[in-house]
Structure formats: structure tokens, C-alpha cells
Amino acid sequence: MKSHIHKFFIKPFIAFLMMAAIVTMISCGGGGGGGDGDDNSDTSGGDTGEGGQESPAFTGFDFDLNQGYFWEYGWDYSSSYVASGSSSSSNYQGTFRVTLGPPVAMDDMTFYEMQISGTTDAGNRKNLKPRGTYVAVSENKIVILAADMTTIETLFDAQTGLWPGSGFFTEFPTSTLFSATLSTISNDYINESAYMVRESASESQCEYFPGYGNICGGDYNENMDEREYYIDSVGPAGYYAYFSMSDWSSPDGGWSASNTTHIGLTASTLWNDSLDYTLEVEPNNQIAEATPINIPARVKGKELSETYLGGTTAVSVGLSPITEIEPNDSPFSPQIVNLLSSITADVENGTDLFTSVTVSPSPGAPTYVATFEDWYEVTVGTGATLNANLDFPGTGADLDMYLFSLEPDNSVEIFASSTDDNVGLGTDSEEMSQFVPTDTYYIAVDAFVTPSGRADYTLEISTGNSQVDICDWFSFSLVSQAQVNIAATGGPTFVLMDATGVNTLASGGAIEVSTMLSAGSYLVGVGTGGEYTLEVTSP
Predict the structure, then answer these.
(1) Does the global pTM surpass 0.90?
(2) What are phi and psi of 402, to 5 degrees?
(3) The domains spanning 278-317+466-537 and 320-462 adopt the same CATH topology
(4) Which CATH architecture does the domain made up of 320-462 adopt?
(5) Whole-number pLDDT of residue 43
(6) Which residues of 293-306 are buried (b: 16+ CB within 10 A; e: fewer)?
(7) What are the beta bridge partners of residue 300?
(8) Which end of the chain is more exposed for a tag (fewer CB within 10 A), N or C?
(9) Residue 159 in contact with residue 142, Cβ under 8 Å?
(10) At 14, is the secondary structure helix, strand, or coil?
(11) Fold classification of 278-317+466-537 (topology level)
(12) Percent of the chain whose predicted confidence (pLDDT) is above 90
């Protein structure tokens, strides 16, 4: 975002009275440079070295770049709007990586393509993608090359200490000479000494002039502060921006709006970092945009509805068959299962291990102690209706089930339950359905009465429908038949499909699903549910 500082428009008769000297832009701390307006540091260049070669103004910016090098950044963006009688706010955060691709030569410099992965969009409000298509370091300068293979801009001139405009995360005005001062970048992602390049300004809508009172010419009260940071031997380290506008003089009561951005370097080859994962490449919301991956793959992504990137694809899935694994007799040692599971198990009153837990029917309600034999843990990535069906035909048993959340004091809160008198009613099933927000939950089975010994049961766990809304697609290929293992930790459900995107071969979540696949191409889709890690491996 550029500076939007308005020049006051003074009506002719006022200008005549006040003379042209008062017709000026009202601003503070404006213009280029790395510090405040009273910064007296010398930024005109370095001393002359041996052989008449001028020393750089800032040292450490003659480092090498190579294909495969990367910078990874964390970021957050927040905005707010306040008006008379109403207010709203939004918050976004994410991670993106700049990986250097194949080199290209231009003007005696070696540039590298900047390949962007991860999330750079703060919804549809702001895109934090770095400027330029290629980057180079040459003669103590960091420069970018546009996609037209012609336009070259200097991001940071460590040789002379002065350069016009440009910017990596923003676009400073090219009509202004900028420099940098040694400072510190400190946010949730980085806390390091760095060279700061800054532009800031502010404007008051009204100004008091003695003898004339308040004269108002601008549209709004505005404030702007943008800072980019660079670290020697590393390069672009982060960004800070704050913008605000307000007008409390309007007849409707006035309003104010503001937004703040933080970006910080979290890892880089130039810091000798090595990461064991990749980031998703947006957009990959549709099958035709699936991100290719190579097995073994570990991919981090962020799953939201992402309407502005193409939305979601509804995929029909079935329940995955699972066999009970003991011990699972406690909320502290449950069997972890995926959504859309059909669990085959058995239970017996008096012989199976059980756990006595303090149960809270609702927040603040009196608690009581109950015992349960089998516990299953399930994570709901986004708010959904959680359905649980418990069937035990021909057993003559009375089984009950509960849906719990685990509280910080290790008590459990009941979200739903099904406790029919099965023996008296002559029934052999229990059902419960409850909308729950994003969280981890526990379904507990209680063997209240098992007159014939062990009672076999089937527990089916599903969401409100048999479809999964897929938001991220990945593709991989096998040259020969292989066993493939897939898991998506963090909450979302995944589906494995053939290359046509028509036939669903498997589905799951945090619990690894293993399946034998023939040679060919396949798709993995990840459902909505926030941040996730997708792992696809083959033994």
C-alpha cells in the first residue's frame, strides 16, 4: 500500500488571507530512510578502500545465492473497523516459503526464479507474496527482476547506501531515495538485529491557524508506517506495516479503520537450516490444480474454504473399517480413530478394565463418578454434527455410550449420551447426534449389563453427511505396485482417489491408512479443518 497523504485544498479566499505559505502537505516522519526525520547518520556511502575501490556502506551483502536455497516466513495480518454503534475485525496468519529455482542471466547478473509455496493471502484482503519473479545478489546489492525479463529494481543497495524506492514485501515510491539504519526486527517469528528501511507519515484532517481557527482540507485522518528489514549474509528478514484512517467529524457519528501486518524470517538455507517438509502451493483447490508430490512426502498446509481460490469439491466417502485395540479403557489411553470409522469390538461387564471418571453434565453443574470400559478419541477439524451409532444385535446386553470432552482438570463434560434400557425395551442399539465445534472428543462405551458374557458391538462414527469438502489436492504417481501409507494430522479428513477423481479408494485422518496400489497416478484430497500435515510414504 502506498502513502495516501492528502494535500490540503484551501479555498481561494482563505488562501488569499493566509498567503500561499500555508498551503502545504501536513506530515511527520515522512519520506525515505531507515530512521526518524532527525536521523543524522551518514548514508552517502563507504570509505575508499585499497586501489581506490569504495568500501560498501553496509558490509555482509556480497553473499552467494544458489538454486535450492530458501527463505521461509511466518506472518499475521489483522484489521479492524469501528463505526458509531458497530465494529468488526478479522485476523489471518500463515507461512510461506521462497525457494530459488533455475538461474537466468541478465545484465551480467545471475538471477534465480522465486518459487512461492505456502499461504500468502490474508483472505481476499491482502496478498503478502514478495515482489519480483527473480532475485539476485550482485556487487553488494539485492535486486529483483520482473516477469518481463527486462525490469530490474534494487531492493537494498549496501554499496552506496542509497537507492530509489522498490521493496520486497511492499513497494516504496521510486521518487524517493531510501537508505537503512541498523535496528532490530522483533515479532512472533524473529528477534534479530537487522537493517531497517522505513517510510512513515501522518496527516490530521484539520489544522488550527491563529486568527483563522481550524481549516480542514483533507478527507480523513491518516497514519502510515511501513518497515522492511534486511540481515547481512541472509537477505530479506521481515516486514511491519500499520495503516489507519478515521473521520469522526461526519454527520453519522464517524468511523475508524486500521490494519497491521507482521512478517518474520523463520528459517533459511543461509542460516544453515534444513527442513523435512514442503509447503502446499496455492491454488490447489481443484483437481486440475493438484500439487505434484514425490513419495515420501511431508506437506504442511492450511485448510479453509478458500472461496477466493476456487472453494471446495464435495467427495462422497464410506466408513473405514477398524478393529478395537486394547487397552483403551481410559480417556488418557484411548484408541484414536478417524472420523468416518466403523469399529468392531467387544466388551464385558466385570471383567474388562474400566476407568472411573468424574463426569460434569454441563459447566458448573454438580459432578458424579461413572465407569466406562472402552474409549475412542476423535478430532473434529471444523464444526460439524458428530453422529455415533452403537449396534450389538443378539447379545441381550444393555450398552450405553457417551460423548465427552476432556477438561483441564481431567474431568469430562458430557456433550451427548444414549442410555436406553435395552433389556427392558428389547432393543440392541444406541444412537446419538450432536453438533460440536472444532476440538478433540471422546466416545465412551459402558457395559452396563452383559448377561451372556462378552458382547460384540459395532460403533460407527461419522459427520452430518457422507461427503467431505476437499480444499487441497495433491497428486503422485507409482511406477510399480506398492504399499502406500497416508495420514493427515491436525484435524482434516483426507481421501485417496484414482486419477480421474471419480473413484474413492480410501479415506482417513490422523490415523495412518495403508493400502496396496497398482502402478499409475493418484489423487489425495484434504478436507477443510485448519492447519495440517499430510504424509504419504511407501515402506
Answers:
(1) no
(2) -135, 150
(3) yes
(4) Sandwich (2.60)
(5) 42
(6) beeebebbbbbbeb
(7) 279, 533
(8) C
(9) no
(10) helix
(11) Jelly Rolls (2.60.120)
(12) 52
